[in-house]
């Protein structure tokens, strides 16, 4: 009997403790030093003591206000829409032209062997847009279509060879080509067939985006500027299929944005954004939901840190750099609101533990101890 009383006293002592060690905290524990919002008014949990963070409920009444707040970790870039241009090819510096000069005269300065034509060596269009023609000199052809350049060559020679005819072929150089750097099936330089070649056409020639990339992001470098768009959005809206320019550089990369999950979640992990927008409900599905035996469905916390410049006290921005958004999945409003609340890159989704867990642990321990005392009594007796 003394042993039974001793073991029971230990159980009662443990039951009187504040809590047992657990994998995650209770909602009340996590939010105890926060500054909550009640009917739009901030109320500190400890009057006169500055709060360590602000607490905001994700409800229908707050969604519009949250939507106007800045996006933390925003990696979006500007984009250039489609522009219709003339489809003709235009000669640019760096292109190469090949010329064949035809002549029917018996005595020709160019065709000295008596043949009807002569093929001139390929000529690189100089930085100032000209090529050198024998007996003529420098002739500017940059900015012309191949046909207009052919006629310009014939006009230049007409004073020397009255019956001249010219044939011109164009090979595009760097300024009339685009470079696909990485993230596609076949990286390399791709000449622009004309001035109306679109990004999707060149991506198709390169084998499309690498299927191993997560939510592929397309980057277009033009001059000193970089533009960006998710590939999925580009495919869904033809007005975004930009017209390329010579010298453009294109690469495709995985979406680097991520959020984290901790606490009584099915998985504690780092999750990269699988598509452009992820709601709180999407995020919960991505982490496998909640643990049925531990999680508090009323205590879903989303921790976010805003930059100091975003803090506002008039409701047009967060009231604190450190803000905790609370989600209650046990109400219809909470569920619908969670499906509209957008997760930001770097957010931490923390699933708190249900308040009944400590009580269940205590009851379980009491049952264990009573089983142990019965075993001890049998041994003693």
Q: Which helices and strands appear, and what pairs or packs with what?
A:
Elements: H1 2-15, H2 27-30, E1 34-38, E2 41-44, E3 53-57, H3 60-67, E4 96-102, E5 117-119, E6 123-124, E7 130-133, E8 137-140, H4 146-157, E9 165-171, E10 177-182, E11 188-191, H5 199-205, E12 217-222, E13 225-230, H6 231-236, E14 249-253, E15 258-263, E16 270-272, H7 280-286, E17 295-305, E18 322-327, H8 332-338, E19 348-353, H9 356-380
Parallel strand pairs: 1-3, 3-18, 10-14, 15-19
Antiparallel strand pairs: 1-2, 4-5, 4-6, 4-9, 7-8, 10-11, 12-13, 12-14, 15-16, 17-18, 17-19
Mean pLDDT value:
83
Most strands sheet? 8 strands, mixed
Rg over CA atoms, rounded to whole Å, is: 36 Å
Structure summary, number of beta strands: 19
Our count of helices gives 9
CATH class value of the largest domain: Alpha Beta
Distance from first to last alpha carbon: 11 Å
Beta-strand content estimate: 25-35%
* Unreliable sequence segments: 10-15, 38-49, 362-370
Strand line-up of the largest beta sheet: 2-1-3-18-17-19-15-16
Number of domains: 3
Question: Looking at the structure, what is the overall shape?
Answer: rod-shaped
Second CATH tier, the architecture of the largest domain: Roll
CATH topology of the largest domain: Outer membrane lipoprotein wza fold like
Assembly form of the protein? single chain
SSE-based structural type: alpha+beta
In helices, the fraction of residues equals: 10-25%
State the order of secondary-structure elements, H for helix, E for strand.
HHEEEHEEEEEHEEEHEEHEEEHEEHEH
């Amino acid at each position: 009997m003394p042993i039974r009383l001793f073991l029971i006293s230990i159980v009662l002592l443990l039951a009187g403790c504040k809590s047992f060690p657990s994998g995650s905290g209770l909602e009340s524990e996590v939010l105890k030093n926060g500054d909550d919002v009640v009917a739009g008014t901030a109320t500190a949990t400890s009057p006169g003591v500055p709060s360590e963070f602000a607490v905001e409920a994700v409800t229908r009444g707050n969604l519009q206000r949250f939507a106007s707040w800045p996006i933390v970790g925003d990696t979006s870039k500007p984009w250039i829409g489609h522009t219709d241009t003339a489809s003709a090819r235009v000669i640019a510096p760096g292109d190469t032209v090949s010329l064949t000069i035809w002549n029917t005269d018996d005595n020709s300065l160019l065709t000295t062997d008596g043949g009807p034509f002569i093929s001139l060596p390929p000529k690189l269009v100089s930085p100032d847009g000209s090529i050198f023609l024998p007996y003529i000199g420098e002739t500017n052809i940059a900015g012309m279509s191949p046909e207009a350049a052919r006629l310009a060559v014939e006009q230049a020679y007409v004073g020397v060879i009255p019956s001249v005819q010219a044939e011109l072929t164009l090979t595009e150089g760097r300024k009339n080509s685009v470079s696909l750097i990485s993230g596609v099936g076949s990286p390399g330089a791709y000449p622009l067939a004309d001035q109306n070649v679109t990004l999707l056409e060149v991506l198709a020639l390169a084998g499309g985006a690498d299927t191993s990339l997560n939510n592929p992001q397309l980057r277009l470098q033009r001059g000193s500027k970089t533009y960006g768009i998710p590939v999925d959005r580009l495919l869904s809206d033809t007005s975004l299929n930009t017209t390329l320019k010579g010298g453009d550089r294109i690469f495709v990369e995985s979406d680097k944005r991520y959020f984290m999950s901790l606490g009584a979640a099915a998985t504690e992990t780092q999750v990269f954004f699988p598509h452009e927008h992820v709601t709180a409900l999407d995020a919960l599905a991505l982490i496998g939901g909640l643990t049925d035996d531990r999680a508090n469905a009323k205590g879903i916390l989303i921790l976010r840190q805003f930059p100091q410049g975003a803090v506002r006290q008039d409701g047009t921005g967060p009231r604190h750099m450190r803000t905790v958004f609370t989600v209650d999945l046990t109400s219809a409003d909470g569920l619908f609101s969670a499906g509209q609340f957008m997760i930001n890159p770097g957010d931490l989704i923390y699933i708190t533990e249900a308040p009944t867990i400590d009580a269940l642990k205590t009851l379980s321990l009491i049952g264990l101890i009573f089983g142990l005392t019965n075993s001890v009594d049998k041994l003693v007796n």
